[in-house]
Model the fold of this input.
Amino acid sequence: MQNTRQILIIDDEDNIRLTLKAALSPMGFALHEAINGEEALAKLDHSAFDVALLDLHMPGIGGIEVLRRARAKHSKVRFIIVTAHGTIESAVEAMKLGAVDFIQKPCTPDDIRDLVGKVLGRETLDETQATDYPTLIELCKRHVTDRNLEQARAVAQRALGVDPGKPDAYNLLGAFLECRGEWVEAQKYYRAALEIDPSYLPAKANLARTASFYKFGKIQLGE
Done:
């Protein structure tokens, strides 16, 4: 049976929209496009979307403002940020607004399909049954998309208790501290993640970015 999930692709670059559509078409989604923030907000007002892939850097109404307005009215839409760059301020603001998932341009079709699949799969998680580490990490991210950062933090702490030998939960807890403006404490958690796995790229990127407000990057929540 055909998948009727509604996906909105918001990007002012024709080639990016074409790439995202080509990647997602085999999954059977109903795909829609918006070439700027104004068109995106109009479409969000008139249709019920499951996922929106949103470029942060667009002329006119930028991605963060689109996210802010959309989340005020359409709390069930799951946003994936598609961007090549972003300042630390916009990354923190996006997470506060429930955008927990980022994908970097250029991205492969497999990257796009895997991430959209994960985002949709979180909706079926049962919190009472979540006991293993991977499920707790995904549940934590779902709470972020619902803008329940304290609940997300609690689930990350549970994941840490289940397996303190993996870096993901430390990195997530650092990101939550970063959202509260506690940069020094956040860096401690990023360093803890790297002590466990020096090759863990999300924590490495977060630690490098938080060293300066002016360093380009985004909050990395997982690989």
Q: What stands out?
A: The CA atoms of residues 37 and 161 lie 42 Å apart. The mean pLDDT is 88. The first helix runs from residue 14 to 24. The beta strands are 6-10, 30-34, 51-55, 78-83, 101-104.
